[in-house]
Amino acid sequence: MKKVASYLLMLGLLVACGGGCGTVASTVAGLPGVPESVKPAVDIAAKTGEKAVAAAREITPSEEYYLGRGVAARILARYPLSKDEALQTYVNKVGHTVAAKASGSRPSKGYHFAVLESSAANSFACPGGIILITKGMLQACANEDQLAAVLAHEVGHVANRDGIASISQARWTEVATTAGTEIAKQYGGTLGQVVAQFEGAIDDVFKTVIVNGYSRAAEENADRAGVQMLKGAGYNPAAMSAILTAMSAKGGSGGILGTHPTVTDRLDNIKVVAQEANTQMEPARTQRFQAVLRR
Amino acid sequence: MNGEKRVWRPWRRLLIVLLLLSLAAGPSVGTAQTFKTVTGKQQLYATPSFSGEVLGTVPEGSEVTIIQQSGAWSQVEYQGQQGWLPAQAFAGSKKVDLSGLLQGKVVKESKTDEVALAGKGFTPEVEADFRQKNPSLRYDLVDQIEQFTVNAAALQAFRQEGGLR
Q1: CB distance A284–B114 less than 8 Å?
Q2: What is the pLDDT of residues A158-196, one digit of tens each?
Q3: Nearest-by-Cβ selection for A198 from B92, B130, B145
Q4: pTM score, two decimals?
């Protein structure tokens, strides 16, 4: 019994040393010096310990990537992808230009921008770096700088991990609950539980992105981050105010506009100083924007 | 003396385990090691940067040889071609089989059971199961979007033309 306790103590120390050590802890049972009678207890404790660590940790960039793919797959089941390759390339060039100036966390596989076939003005930021914008939103933009403002705002949501924040805490800690059933179940059925949790987390993010919108603080932070990206990239930062005002005038509520806070509050939040605007090359940018859209 | 020996034995084993962990912590210098890319289709970059030139793709499950590591990037050889993969390419890697490490043999992944997979959280395996249960979701279009790339030179020209940085 003392032997079992000493092995479990040793295992506990290994698990306690962090997530990186957690997966290797289960190799303890495979060591030649561990008696056969102890192995089952060590195995179960190791697996339970791994799950406890998983429940306590934050979502990883890799998990964020897979969640984002799931959210994007759901949106793409609703809106078809534009087959206009020149338009896709152009939007990606604008998007990558502003995303290169983003602060905060960078998606594990970089950003990807795509245009959807829909006349409704909308834009969506999926966790993990996929940013979708409808043709309706492109048409609502007067020029490239306003398009850059929309994309920069969405990049801000990804960089601030706003989508991930919408996953309910209860759902994420469900992983801890499965740890409690580990010993009773031995090794059965847990992958199915995680798949159900995965589906639930996608649903949480999807509802926030499509239906409910982000919090007031998240929208204002994304606006500020977007303005910083515009400034950093050399776009006119006043384009953020311009597209918000234009969308508000049209009475829309989708994508960048959201449902709250009010546009007046958001304009007050960013307070772009006109003198800081770099407008010298704006006509050239507007010209190529119109050329791509008129094709 | 015997009592002292009994007290210290578990700690000796702990030291052995820690030694093995330190050996397994990363690729050793000068020794090529083989891992599996398991996180879906990967792009092979000419330089350790997402804005670098894309040399080609590495299909899911392909084995690549690690040449060196630089920050979050690994220089690899795949089918005779050298390039760079981000660390996330190996994010879903399974447990490493340590047998043979001390003999200088190639280190390979070992297959893990369902519980271990579940313990890793949201992985390619979880996505695969979810996709199978939800065939109406357009993962095919997501894969297509991930193939949208902008050549670094073309992006630079685009910025220059628009007076951007």
Answers
A1: no
A2: 999 999 888 877 777 765 455 344 433 444 446 677 788
A3: B130
A4: 0.64
